[in-house]
């Protein structure tokens, strides 16, 4: 079970998304860049040119390496590109949340958590 | 008098631009567009006006690619006109691009400050603000180098000189830099159309003065409204107001002292148009703070911004009633930009399934 | 004998019978408690899953509204502000706080969002144009993110509860299908062994009680005394060993008791031998 120390420091959100989603979420004020030496951002803009390895690396960084992130938001169509990683991710912290993007409306069928919900109810 | 020799050099351009103006979408087109169910339908509706440019789009394109393609058409047409322009019209059109250049340079400054690979940024620059030596700016690795290359390589040098040092680029918020540049640009443009021998005293000067004065006032009002609650001091704010326009000098002085929406309203009361804008906006949003918003879901109430755009379009439309003037080129570009914004807006509403606000576009034809 | 069935490796003594009975009782209590816990958690779990389902659908709508407000910004500013926003992000204004909620002994974390005061990275954005839309968009997105945070809480609760329920159900099943039957088997085994012992003892004693009739009284007394002495010596040794090595409890416990039984048996029966003869 998760211990207290595991999540009390988690105060940021992270986002992996297309430019519009990231811009919007940054406008909401979730953007954070850590102190200069390594200057880590908590967001990643994915466009057509971003390769899957970069996305995976960012996902890995947000979910396992950084201990100050409580929620990882990821665009559903980007989650699709690293679907195996998202589906096998089962830890409670940080919570991974698939969000719709502007150009890709939300499809509940693909959501890894929602699929688990469905499976549990045998639908 | 100006009509005598105008057509010798500029008759062809005027003809072309008037032709382009007739190609703009009309109210009926927009009505059809708002009935569309999908982006593909919309694409079909845009077929006659944008045919070739939209042909390469995949089925159900994203709104941003749609906007990019429609902008491409504007750029292509602008380049064609520019290539055929001679003499003072060519110079005039160069002036037109400086505004976009300022945005591009601001982008590059931001990129350099954050040590980004500036080459990537070139793709993001507005094509109308493209200048040949722009890639040279990307070589700069620190802000001082960039500052020097901007001074040497770009036509924007006069706007930097005297008001911004390279330290300023580092320390000031990029928005202040941008607005300082824009202020200098507007003043210079105003000066240009009113003092150049080919334009002074002609309809060009007349129409352009009206447009630029409006633009100057709009910026002054916007800067004031948007600076409430930020660290921008009143003295600094005053420096960003262009030194001409209908509000200048009394109105701008009052604006510089304004503390809230009410203060701004008082400041602009001297000008009938703005007064009515503020009255309309004031009713919608209530008094106090930046209350000129129509509210998150307000579909009927127009924002101040909307009314300014509407006014800009009216002026631009009016420019075409004059003959022998360069101002129609400016007006055409502005109308065209608005058209692109309208298309993007409608596409966005369709894509996001928010039909109730689809009517928020501005059409003057 | 029930040794063929699954049972624990114990010596069939009265003490281990007592232990087993206590164990069975404990297992039954534990089973009913866990069962109740599992039911409470499942109830909560179902509620959460239903809310997730709803919230996820709602989220689609919320995000659409937010994207539209971003489109409005693009419309008003007349260009893309994405890059500028990305570059001017410095310090998060929108942060999370985690708190806990106790559901049947399971600590479920919940996220709570709050805005830090005083750091506004984008105050100047859209200064010349579109600033009001930018501010409005920020509010819309902040609301959207709040909804997302709420959803994230639900989802985290879902993941944790899912895990906990699995563990609890596994325990319930283990108790129900393994521990209880095995303990019952063991008890049955011990009982049958004890009965067997009783019968053996009884038979032996019957033999013993017939014996004195055939022998003279003195010889009999001597034998009994002898036996007693031997038994007492053995018992002493065993008790000593027991004190020295308490670890091997079951084994040690069993032996002296048996000895004690054996000792007690003849003495008792000496007194009762007449009765027994009467019976048989």
TrEMBL record, chain A:
- Per the record, the coiled-coil ranges are none
- List the keywords (alphabetical): Hydrogen ion transport, Ion transport, Membrane, Transport, Vacuole
**Can you say where in the cell this protein is located?**
Vacuole membrane
Q: Name one Pfam family in it.
A: ATP-synt_F
Topology in the membrane? Peripheral membrane protein
| Main location, first listed in the record | membrane
> Which GO cellular component does the record give, naming just one?
fungal-type vacuole membrane
Q: Which GO terms describe its molecular function?
A: proton-transporting ATPase activity, rotational mechanism
Q: Which InterPro entries match?
A: ATPase_V1-cplx_f_g_su, ATPase_V1-cplx_fsu_euk, ATPase_V1_fsu_sf
Q: Which family does it belong to?
A: Belongs to the V-ATPase F subunit family.
Quaternary structure and interacting proteins, as annotated: V-ATPase is a heteromultimeric enzyme made up of two complexes: the ATP-hydrolytic V1 complex and the proton translocation V0 complex. V-ATPase is a heteromultimeric enzyme composed of a peripheral catalytic V1 complex (components A to H) attached to an integral membrane V0 proton pore complex (components: a, c, c', c'', d, e, f and VOA1).
Role played: Subunit of the V1 complex of vacuolar(H+)-ATPase (V-ATPase), a multisubunit enzyme composed of a peripheral complex (V1) that hydrolyzes ATP and a membrane integral complex (V0) that translocates protons. V-ATPase is responsible for acidifying and maintaining the pH of intracellular compartments.
* Matches recorded under NCBIfam families: V_ATP_synt_F
Name of the molecule in the record? V-type proton ATPase subunit F
Record the organism.
Immersiella caudata
Automatic annotation (TrEMBL), chain B:
Please give the start and end residues of each transmembrane region: none
Annotated Gene3D superfamilies: ATP synthase (C/AC39) subunit, domain 3, V-type ATP synthase subunit C domain
Q: Does the keyword Ion transport apply?
A: yes
Q: Which residues form the signal peptide?
A: none
Tell me the keywords, alphabetical order.
Hydrogen ion transport, Ion transport, Transport
Entries under InterPro entries matching the protein: ATPase_csu/dsu_sf (IPR036079), ATPase_V0-cplx_csu/dsu (IPR002843), ATPase_V0-cplx_dsu (IPR016727), V-type_ATPase_csu/dsu (IPR035067), V-type_ATPase_csu/dsu_dom_3 (IPR044911)
Q: Name one GO molecular function term.
A: proton-transporting ATPase activity, rotational mechanism
Q: Which GO terms describe its cellular component?
A: proton-transporting V-type ATPase, V0 domain
| Recorded superkingdom | Eukaryota
**Summary of the function given for this chain in its UniProt record:** Subunit of the V0 complex of vacuolar(H+)-ATPase (V-ATPase), a multisubunit enzyme composed of a peripheral complex (V1) that hydrolyzes ATP and a membrane integral complex (V0) that translocates protons. V-ATPase is responsible for acidifying and maintaining the pH of intracellular compartments. This subunit is a non-integral membrane component of the membrane pore domain and is required for proper assembly of the V0 sector. Might be involved in the regulated assembly of V1 subunits onto the membrane sector or alternatively may prevent the passage of protons through V0 pores.
Family, per entry: Belongs to the V-ATPase V0D/AC39 subunit family.
Q: Which PANTHER family match?
A: VACUOLAR ATP SYNTHASE SUBUNIT AC39 (PTHR11028)
Quaternary structure and interacting proteins, as annotated: V-ATPase is a heteromultimeric enzyme made up of two complexes: the ATP-hydrolytic V1 complex and the proton translocation V0 complex. V-ATPase is a heteromultimeric enzyme composed of a peripheral catalytic V1 complex (components A to H) attached to an integral membrane V0 proton pore complex (components: a, c, c', c'', d, e, f and VOA1).
Name this protein carries in UniProt: V-type proton ATPase subunit
Organism this protein belongs to: Immersiella caudata
Give the lineage.
Eukaryota, Fungi, Dikarya, Ascomycota, Pezizomycotina
From TrEMBL, chain C:
> Quick check: keyword Transmembrane in the entry?
no
* GO biological process per UniProt: vacuolar acidification
What domain of life does the UniProt record list for this protein's source? Eukaryota
The free-text function statement in the UniProt record for this protein reads: Subunit of the V1 complex of vacuolar(H+)-ATPase (V-ATPase), a multisubunit enzyme composed of a peripheral complex (V1) that hydrolyzes ATP and a membrane integral complex (V0) that translocates protons. V-ATPase is responsible for acidifying and maintaining the pH of intracellular compartments.
Instruction: Decide whether keyword Membrane is in the record.
Output: yes
User: Could you read off the lineage of the organism from its UniProt record?
Assistant: Eukaryota, Fungi, Dikarya, Ascomycota, Pezizomycotina
Keyword annotations for this protein? Hydrogen ion transport, Ion transport, Membrane, Transport, Vacuole
Where does the UniProt annotation locate this protein? Vacuole membrane
* Name this polypeptide is given: V-type proton ATPase subunit D
What membrane topology term does the record carry? Peripheral membrane protein
Q: Which GO cellular component terms are attached?
A: vacuolar proton-transporting V-type ATPase complex
NCBIfam families the UniProt entry points to:
V_ATPase_subD
Species this chain originates from: Immersiella caudata
InterPro entries per UniProt: V_ATPase_D (IPR002699)
Pfam families, per the entry: ATP-synt_D
Family per similarity comment? Belongs to the V-ATPase D subunit family.
Give GO MF terms, alphabetically.
proton-transporting ATPase activity, rotational mechanism
């Amino acid at each position: 079970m998760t211990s207290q120390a595991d999540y009390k420091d988690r105060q940021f959100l992270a986002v992996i998304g297309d430019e519009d989603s990231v811009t919007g979420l940054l406008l909401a004020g979730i953007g954070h860049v850590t102190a200069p030496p390594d200057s880590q951002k908590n967001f990643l803009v994915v466009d057509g040119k971003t390769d899957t390895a970069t996305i995976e690396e960012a996902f890995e960084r947000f979910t396992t390496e950084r201990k100050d992130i409580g929620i990882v938001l990821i665009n559903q169509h980007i989650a699709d590109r690293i679907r195996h990683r998202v589906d096998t991710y089962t830890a409670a912290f940080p919570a991974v949340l698939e969000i719709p993007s502007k150009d890709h409306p939300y499809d509940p069928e693909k959501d890894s958590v929602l699929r688990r919900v469905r499976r549990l109810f045998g639908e | 008098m100006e009509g005598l020799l105008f057509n010798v050099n500029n008759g062809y351009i005027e003809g072309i631009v008037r032709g382009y103006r007739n190609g703009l979408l009309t109210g009926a087109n927009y009505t059809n567009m708002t009935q569309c169910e999908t982006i593909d339908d919309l694409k079909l509706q845009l077929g006659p006006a944008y045919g070739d440019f939209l042909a390469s789009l995949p089925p159900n394109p994203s709104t941003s690619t749609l906007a990019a393609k429609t902008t491409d058409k504007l750029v292509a047409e602008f380049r064609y006109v520019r290539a055929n322009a001679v003499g003072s019209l060519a110079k005039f059109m160069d002036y037109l691009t400086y505004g976009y250049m300022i945005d591009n340079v601001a982008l590059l400054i931001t990129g350099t400050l954050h040590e980004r690979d500036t080459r990537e940024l070139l793709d993001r620059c507005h094509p109308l603000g493209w200048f040949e030596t722009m890639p040279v700016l990307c070589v700069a690795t620190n802000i001082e180098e960039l500052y020097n290359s901007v001074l040497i390589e770009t036509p924007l040098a006069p706007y930097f000189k005297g008001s911004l040092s390279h330290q300023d680029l580092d320390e000031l918020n990029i928005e202040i830099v941008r607005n300082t540049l824009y202020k200098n640009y507007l003043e210079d443009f105003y000066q240009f159309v009113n003092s150049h021998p080919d334009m002074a005293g002609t309809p060009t000067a007349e129409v352009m003065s009206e447009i630029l004065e409006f633009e100057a006032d709009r910026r002054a009002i916007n800067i004031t409204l948007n600076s409430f609650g930020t660290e921008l001091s009143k003295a600094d704010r005053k420096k960003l107001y262009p030194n001409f326009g209908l509000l200048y000098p009394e109105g701008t002085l009052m604006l510089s002292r304004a503390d809230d929406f009410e203060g701004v309203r008082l400041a602009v009361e001297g000008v009938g148009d703005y007064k009515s804008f503020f009255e309309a906006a004031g009713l919608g949003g209530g008094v106090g703070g930046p209350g000129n918003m129509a509210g998150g879901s307000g579909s009927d109430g127009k924002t101040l911004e909307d009314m300014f755009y509407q006014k800009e379009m009216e002026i631009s439309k009016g420019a075409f009633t004059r003959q022998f003037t360069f101002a129609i080129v400016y007006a055409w570009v502005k109308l065209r930009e608005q058209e692109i914004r309208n298309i993007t807006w409608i596409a966005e509403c369709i894509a996001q399934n928010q039909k109730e606000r689809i009517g928020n576009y501005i059409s003057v034809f | 004998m029930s040794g063929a069935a699954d049972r624990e490796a114990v010596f069939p003594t009265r003490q281990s019978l007592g232990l087993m009975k206590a164990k069975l009782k404990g297992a039954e209590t534990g089973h009913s408690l866990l069962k109740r816990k599992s039911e409470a958690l499942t109830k909560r779990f179902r509620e959460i899953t239903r809310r997730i389902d709803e919230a996820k659908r709602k989220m689609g709508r919320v995000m659409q509204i937010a994207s539209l407000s971003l489109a409005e910004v693009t419309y008003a500013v007349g260009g893309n502000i994405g890059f500028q926003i990305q570059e001017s992000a410095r310090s998060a204004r929108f942060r999370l706080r985690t708190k806990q909620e106790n559901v049947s002994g399971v600590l479920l974390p919940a996220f709570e969002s709050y805005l830090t005061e005083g750091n506004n990275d984008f105050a100047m954005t859209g200064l010349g144009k579109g600033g009001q839309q930018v501010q409005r968009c920020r509010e819309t997105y902040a609301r959207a993110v709040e909804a997302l945070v709420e959803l994230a809480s639900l989802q985290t609760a879902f993941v944790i509860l899912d895990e906990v329920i699995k563990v609890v159900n596994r325990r319930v099943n283990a108790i129900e299908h393994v521990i209880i039957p095995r303990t019952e088997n063991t008890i049955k085994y011990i009982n049958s062994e004890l009965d067997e012992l009783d019968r053996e003892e009884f038979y032996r004693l019957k033999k013993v009680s017939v014996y004195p009739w055939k022998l003279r009284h003195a010889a009999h007394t001597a034998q009994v005394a002898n036996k007693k002495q031997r038994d007492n010596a053995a018992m002493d040794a065993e008790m000593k060993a027991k004190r020295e090595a308490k670890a091997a409890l079951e084994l040690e416990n069993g032996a002296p008791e048996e000895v004690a039984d054996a000792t007690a048996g003849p003495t008792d029966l000496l007194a009762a031998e007449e009765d027994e003869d009467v019976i048989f």
